[in-house]
Design a protein that fits this description.
The complex is a heterodimer of chains A (189) and B (184). By secondary structure, chain A is mainly α. Chain A contains 7 helices and no strands. The termini of chain B are far apart. Classes of the chains: A mainly alpha (189), B mainly alpha (184).
Chain lengths: 189, 184
């Protein structure tokens, strides 16, 4: 099989059958790209994960673009990324097209209302896991807890009291504060 | 112009969503509400469906919002917008990789951004929780949703204790859908 087709199909298969988003895909991507096809070494896979975590955007897209680019240049990057995106694109198109009709079925509406609770639990869990991972890795727990608590409270105030602080502004502020604080600490050592 | 707006708003989400889909949810929420594209109930449907369908959650949310606002062209531009930042970043990274991995400015900024995001995500979760237990008029209290949430939390905690790994999102979603169909 042509490499470009292979890239497209491999990533399409992962995109089409993995539930739970990018983090859930990482182990499947590793199986496909490292063990089965030997497109990436284990080190490269670990590196993609680190890069994906420190750059914005969907993690699955980071992995697909990186692998495609490494194997077949820009064309490979485009094929792998398209493969990752297209299955869910079509699935969501179909769902969106019928959603209004389907929502009038009482059982579906009830299921979706139940799912709201799962969405909340998954969001809280993701935030908690993220914070735990940060605490495990950081050499400076106090600063991490400080950042976490400050922005948690600020966001809650913003949401509950309708302060409307844009999230992007908070992320940018955290980045600048992080740079100022940690570069000073680094200099002090 | 809705097509251009969809593209730009999702480009913004793709460019600022650190830490995967859950980092994007506060941004998606803010965007669809402030643009008047959805209300809170539609937002919860969007999140529920994006998380219970296969593929990258951000891509799913972009496709659905885009289609909802402007049909297939809308779905295309929103999806393109959300993936473009990471696609472009990954294209240039090989050229600055050595500098990227050790780049002090970026590393220190990320050390501030990560815990900030964890805080924003948990605050958003708490806020959405308040939204779903107080129904839309903010007066009636939805005991059933509160109970379902408590059951789901208990199940995930027990699952983690017994199996030493977190319960898969789709299992939790299936469970919540079944409980919803039976008791709501």
């Amino acid at each position: 099989m042509n490499l470009l087709t292979d890239l497209f199909l491999s990533f399409a298969r992962i995109g089409a059958f993995t539930f739970g988003g990018g983090y859930a895909m990482l182990s499947l991507l590793e199986h496909e790209c490292v063990e089965k096809k030997q497109w990436l070494t284990e080190d490269e896979m670990a590196e993609v994960t680190v890069i994906a975590e420190s750059t914005p955007g969907p993690i699955a897209i980071n992995c697909a673009t990186y692998t495609g680019l490494k194997l077949a240049g820009i064309k490979g990057a485009v094929c792998a990324t398209l493969g990752m995106v297209l299955p869910s694109f079509f699935v969501l198109l179909i769902i969106s097209a019928f959603l209004k009709n389907v929502l009038t079925i009482p059982l579906v509406a009830k299921a979706l209302r139940g799912i709201r609770a799962a969405v909340v639990v998954l969001i809280l869990r993701a935030g908690y896991q993220m914070f735990r991972n940060i605490l495990k890795k950081t050499p400076d727990k106090k600063s991490a807890i400080g950042f976490f608590a400050f922005f948690l409270i600020l966001t809650l105030c913003s949401l509950l009291l309708a302060w409307h602080i844009p999230t992007i502004l908070m992320i940018l502020a955290a980045g600048i504060m992080g740079y100022i604080l940690f570069s000073r600490k680094g200099a002090a050592k | 112009m809705i097509i251009l707006e969809l593209f730009l708003q999702f480009l913004k989400i793709g460019a600022f969503a650190f830490g995967g889909a859950y980092g994007a949810i506060p941004l998606i929420r803010e965007t669809v509400l402030s643009m008047g594209w959805m209300d809170e109930a539609q937002l919860m449907n969007l999140l529920g469906i994006s998380e219970s369908t296969p593929g990258p959650i951000m891509v799913n949310a972009a496709t659905m919002t885009g289609f909802d606002q402007a049909g297939i062209p809308g779905a295309l531009v929103a999806t393109l917008g959300v993936i473009l930042p990471s696609f472009l970043i990954m294209l240039i990274i090989p050229y600055l990789q050595k500098r990227w991995a050790g780049h002090k400015v970026i590393r220190m900024a990320i050390r501030g951004i990560k815990p900030c995001l964890a805080g924003i995500i948990i605050a958003t979760g708490i806020h959405l929780f308040i939204q779903i237990v107080t129904s839309s008029d903010q007066k009636t209290f939805d005991w059933k949703i509160l109970l379902i949430t408590a059951v789901l939390i208990a199940v995930s905690v027990l699952f983690r204790k017994n199996k030493q790994k977190p319960i898969s999102p789709i299992l939790l979603i299936l469970l919540s859908a079944i409980i919803g169909m039976l008791f709501l």
